[in-house]
Amino acid sequence: QVQLVESGGGLVQAGGSLRISCAASGRTSVSYNMGWFRQAPGKEREFVAAINWNGGNTNYADSVKGRFTISRDNAKNALYLQMNSLTPEDTALYYCAAGRIYGTRWFEYDYWGQGTQVTVSS
Fold first, then answer.
1. Which of 20, 77, 99, 115 has a CB 3.0–4.6 Å from the CB of 24, allowing a cystine?
2. How would DSSP label each residue in 57-114?
3. Can you tell me the distance from the alpha carbon of 30 to that of 75, in angstroms, rounded to the nearest whole number?
């Protein structure tokens, strides 16, 4: 079993930046691919970014490409998402995920955190 805990969310003005983190514990493995998803009220959970087991490959949703950067520190069992040039459309509950598949769909991941809220004001 793997436990994931997100942190770092908060209220940010449009155009601002924020870095959120995900700490992993339990039966963690360097072989896990990891990703970030987000969900706003009344909307489906959507893919944000993914990173493979060694950090050598990344993938981003078109809506965040060029603004967000996903990274990981396997020695610390940590995942990060640096978010720049934030807009109100980025407001959502952000979840980190881990799994055996380097994917872009929520059901391709095996473990999930509880989420951290990011709110961007205009």
1. 77
2. -EEE-TTTTTTEEEEEEGGGTEEEEEE-S--GGG-EEEEEEEESS--SSGGG-SEEB-
3. 9
For the segment 95-101, the average pLDDT, to the nearest whole number, is: 96
Residue 1: what pLDDT?
84
Distances (CA, A) of 52 to 76, 91, 93: 16, 25, 22
Burial letters 34-43, b for 16+ CB under 10 A, else e? bbbbbeeeee
Q: What are the backbone angles phi and psi of residue 105, rounded to the nearest 5°?
A: -115, 140
What tokens does 39 get?
């969900």
Q: Which amino acid type is present at position 23?
A: A
Give the chain's length. Answer: 122
Residue 30 has pLDDT above 80, yes or no: no
List the 2-7 sheet strands across, edge first.
2-7, 18-26, 78-83, 68-73
The alpha carbon of residue 44 and the mean position of all alpha carbons in its chain are separated, in whole angstroms, by 15
